[in-house]
């Protein structure tokens, strides 16, 4: 049971089986069955049968031991097999979510020194900061602790540990695209040529990084289940896909039942850290992504969908489709719709042709902006929010000031000109372009 990153009043249930996490269709079936049973029982219908057997199972201990075993086996330390983390200092910042167990039940039992770890006790009011690897305070406090304690690694978990981020020994934050790059470097070493699926907010630099390591990059729809489901589908279609990650820090691996499991991601990074030390390589895990090119600026702006909530989805679709049509009908010169990551590096694309350009279902589009000299200035990703009635505009610029130029252009030549401003609250964009 978790509210994840949402306010505590919005708790929900996530279901998992041996085959992975259930989809919303599965969950709907479960809820319908439960509702039918409830009604039948209320009406005195249906067999009472034998009552279900309820068992108390200590899943957390089993899970921690599983993680410890993986680290021991894969490091296979030549002198101290059972304590492969002896001599390492690791800071954990659980942000008062439920990730504290990783400190005492995984790292310390393997010999690590976790002195200086932060906010390990669960407290649903999150008195310090949001447990979130995207949260600037969470990352900077962890950075301070890593530097103050001379730690080899800092780990940041979100509330329910399905997302994570890390800080390397120099204090550099590794989250978002950087975390995907780090995981890609690790996974591509184990599975050369594998496909990596991410959401389409990821940068061009990440696509090039994956390609430079011999991998393929599929950009897909935002929402961790969408990204994971795409990876499952690609595997079923015969495209080997070992890593599925969102820029939010959700990450799933084929070897781990396609589960978005932040602790498992950190386990992979910890193993790499120890291996690098054993191989006497210079630098911490951050050195694996030194050549990742990053955008000069990244900006996220939101536009609330106005009017009655029941019309929000339809209006959102209209706005996103209008964006695509404006570009395709050449009403927005300079803007070009983006292909999926794998085609944009210009090699034999492995992604199903239905996914070009990036999304066919009118949820989101991504476009690049070129200036009058046909120099690319940056890109924008336009989509409906997964949770709330708003349109998210993610912009990345290759040059300082580029996001403002792109937002200004979109505001004048698309938001106002197309009339979508009649049902979108564009104030955030207007404030940004001033
Ligand atoms: O659409 P938004 O409101 O930006 O939220 C998008 C995000 O929602 C949740 O956090 C999901 O777990 C993420 O997978 C997704 O990226």
Automatic annotation (TrEMBL):
Coiled coil: none annotated. Signal peptide: none annotated. It catalyses: alpha-D-glucose 1-phosphate = alpha-D-glucose 6-phosphate. Its EC number is 5.4.2.2. It is an enzyme of class 5 (isomerase). This is phosphoglucomutase (alpha-D-glucose-1,6-bisphosphate-dependent). The keyword Metal-binding does not apply. GO terms for cellular component: chloroplast stroma. Keywords: Phosphoprotein. One of its GO terms (molecular function) is phosphoglucomutase activity. Residues 84-171, 175-275 form the Alpha-D-phosphohexomutase alpha/beta/alpha domain. It comes from Panicum virgatum (Blackwell switchgrass). GO terms for biological process: carbohydrate metabolic process. Its cofactor is Mg(2+). PANTHER family: PHOSPHOGLUCOMUTASE (ALPHA-D-GLUCOSE-1,6-BISPHOSPHATE-DEPENDENT), PHOSPHOHEXOSE MUTASE.
């Amino acid at each position: 049971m978790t509210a994840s990153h949402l306010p505590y009043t919005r708790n929900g249930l996530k279901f998992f089986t041996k085959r992975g996490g259930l989809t919303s269709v599965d969950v709907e079936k479960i809820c319908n069955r439960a509702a039918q049973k409830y009604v039948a029982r209320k009406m005195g219908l249906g067999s009472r049968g034998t009552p279900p057997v309820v068992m108390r199972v200590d899943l957390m201990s089993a899970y921690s031991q599983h993680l410890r075993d993986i680290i021991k086996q894969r490091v296979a330390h030549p002198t101290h097999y059972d304590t492969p983390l002896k001599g390492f200092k690791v800071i954990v910042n659980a942000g008062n979510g439920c990730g504290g167990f990783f400190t005492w039940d995984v790292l310390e039992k393997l010999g690590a020194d976790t002195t200086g770890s932060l906010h390990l006790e669960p407290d649903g009011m999150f008195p310090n900061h949001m447990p979130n690897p995207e949260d600037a305070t969470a990352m900077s406090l962890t950075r301070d602790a890593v530097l103050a304690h001379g730690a080899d690694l800092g780990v940041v978990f979100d509330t329910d540990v399905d997302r994570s981020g890390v800080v390397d020994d120099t204090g550099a934050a590794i989250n978002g695209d950087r975390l995907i790059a780090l995981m890609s470097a690790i996974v591509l070493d184990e599975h050369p040529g594998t496909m990596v699926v991410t959401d389409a907010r990821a940068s061009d630099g990440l696509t090039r990084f994956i390609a430079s390591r011999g991998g393929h990059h599929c950009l897909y729809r935002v929402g961790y289940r969408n990204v994971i489901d795409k990876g499952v589908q690609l595997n079923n279609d015969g495209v080997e896909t070992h890593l599925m990650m969102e820029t939010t820090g959700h990450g799933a691996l084929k070897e781990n039942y396609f589960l978005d499991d932040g602790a498992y991601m950190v386990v992979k990074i910890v193993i790499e850290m120890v291996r690098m030390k054993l191989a006497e390589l210079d630098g911490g895990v951050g050195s694996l992504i030194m050549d990742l090119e990053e955008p000069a600026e990244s900006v996220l702006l939101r536009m609330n969908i106005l009017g009655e909530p029941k019309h929000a989805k339809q209006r959102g679709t209209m706005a996103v489709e209008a964006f695509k049509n404006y570009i395709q009908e050449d009403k927005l010169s300079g803007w070009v719709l983006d292909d999926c990551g794998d085609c944009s590096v210009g090699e034999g694309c492995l992604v199903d042709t239905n996914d070009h350009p990036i999304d066919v279902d009118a949820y989101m589009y991504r476009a690049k902006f070129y200036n009058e000299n046909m120099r690319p200035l940056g890109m924008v990703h336009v989509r409906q929010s997964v949770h709330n009635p708003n349109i998210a505009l993610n912009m990345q610029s290759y040059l300082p000031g580029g996001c403002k130029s792109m937002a200004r252009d979109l505001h004048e030549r698309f938001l106002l000109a197309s009339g979508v401003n009649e049902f979108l609250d564009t104030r955030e964009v207007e404030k940004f372009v001033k």
